[in-house]
């Protein structure tokens, strides 16, 4: 009997590890859009969720690499079911009637001394289907769809006030003013923006969403250079509205100046050829190596040239081009997320969803819904 008990005890960790891997796999697929009855049923069993059980999700993201083991242990003690979404990203499933925001705030306080983390929280829903909805809300709140509360990012849906503000801003044509050769075009657009802000009194969420929308339309908007200042604005809620608008105008002015300088610097023919390949062949399995081989060049040297003359890597330029075309398809077609991903050159729909969320501040599904909301809000009544 002792030998049998020892054998069972030795096998329990392996069984538990297998169960955790299965749970991570199922919930990760749900996070990126798998709402099939089979996946939802498996999630309900793994989480012990009945149809009417209230639940909600939170998502913890480490901004400096993988989540360390010490943090994983801390997550297991906060009354939630932790699950791995990515090396730097963990989900937390809660089975409570109301969000315990004090508990989550204390968790963030505990993490603040360890590294840079963001913790976003979805809304309360019911059952496995509600769990999936809350999980995606928490993921979208890692982007632009959030309202801050004591260090947390609470999911904030795209609302009619934001849609009305974006429709009004569209007449200012900020993106076109940035590309206009006449520098006075941007000054005029920013003046009109300030007048509109005084007249319409938009909320901070609408302003932040505007910054993310303008940033998403930029050809270059990475973590480096002046684009970082604009990207930081849609995470900023502490500034008064006037100060925020002033910082927004300064960021756009600097972006225009940098773009004008880049246009004045002629790119060498190999760089022009690489950029042309991205523009025209983005849907193909394109890489720096394949383009360099066509040009009979060393890939590392061509990569250095592209970065020096464009301010970004070949890979980032390709990703931005693909995401830009995906935005058009999401707005103008009824294709599934998988079909859109394949058409713009992504072979893995999960990777496409990750990159889209990173670039646009929300998932492809949320982006399509927000664009539909904007169009429907101002559509003529039948």
Describe this structure in words.
- This protein is of the alpha+beta class and 382 residues long.
- It has three domains: 14-155, Alpha-Beta Plaits, CATH 3.30.70; 160-264, no CATH class; 269-377, Arc Repressor Mutant, subunit A.
- It is 62% helix and 9% strand.
- The chain contains 18 helices and seven strands.
- Strands 1, 2, 3, 4, 5, 6 and 7 form a seven-stranded mixed beta sheet that branches.
- β2 (81-86) and β3 (89-94) form a beta hairpin.
- α8 (184-200) runs antiparallel to α11 (241-264).
- The longest helix is centred in the N-terminal third of the chain and has 30 residues, at 2-31.
- It is globular.
- It starts with a helix and ends in a 5-residue tail after the last helix.
- The model is unreliable at 220-225 and 372-382 (pLDDT under 50).
């Amino acid at each position: 009997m002792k030998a049998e008990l020892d054998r069972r005890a030795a096998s329990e960790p392996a069984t538990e590890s297998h169960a955790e891997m299965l749970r991570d796999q199922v919930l990760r697929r749900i996070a990126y859009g798998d709402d099939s009855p089979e996946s939802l049923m498996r999630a309900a069993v793994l989480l012990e969720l009945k149809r009417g059980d209230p639940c909600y999700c939170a998502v913890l993201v480490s901004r400096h690499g993988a989540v360390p083991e010490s943090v994983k242990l801390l997550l297991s003690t906060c009354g939630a079911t932790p699950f791995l979404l990515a090396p730097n990203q963990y989900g937390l499933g809660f089975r409570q009637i109301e969000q315990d925001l004090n508990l989550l705030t204390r968790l963030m306080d505990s993490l603040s001394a360890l590294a840079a983390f963001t913790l976003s929280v979805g809304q309360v829903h019911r059952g496995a289907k509600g769990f999936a909805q809350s999980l995606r809300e928490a993921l979208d709140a890692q982007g632009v769809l959030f309202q801050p509360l004591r260090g947390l990012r609470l999911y904030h849906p795209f609302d009619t006030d934001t849609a009305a503000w974006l429709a009004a801003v569209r007449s200012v044509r900020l993106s076109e003013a940035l590309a206009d050769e006449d520098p006075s075009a941007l000054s005029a657009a920013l003046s009109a923006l300030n007048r509109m802000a005084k007249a319409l009194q938009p909320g901070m969420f609408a302003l932040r969403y505007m910054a993310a929308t303008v940033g998403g339309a930029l050809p270059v908007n990475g973590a480096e250079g002046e684009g970082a200042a604009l990207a930081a604005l849609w995470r900023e809620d502490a500034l008064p509205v006037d100060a925020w608008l002033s910082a927004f105008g300064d960021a756009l002015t600097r972006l225009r100046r940098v773009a004008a300088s880049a246009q004045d610097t002629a790119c060498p023919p190999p760089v022009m050829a690489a950029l042309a390949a991205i523009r025209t062949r983005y849907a193909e399995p394109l890489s720096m190596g394949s383009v360099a081989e066509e040009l009979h060049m060393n890939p590392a040297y061509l990569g250095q040239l592209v970065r020096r003359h464009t301010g970004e890597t070949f890979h980032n330029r390709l990703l931005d081009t693909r995401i830009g075309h995906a935005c058009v398809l999401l707005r103008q077609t009824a294709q599934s997320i998988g079909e859109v991903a394949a058409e713009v050159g992504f072979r893995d729909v999960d990777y496409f969803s990750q990159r889209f969320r990173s670039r646009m501040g929300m998932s492809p599904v949320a982006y399509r819904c927000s664009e539909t909301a904007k169009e429907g809000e101002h559509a003529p009544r039948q």
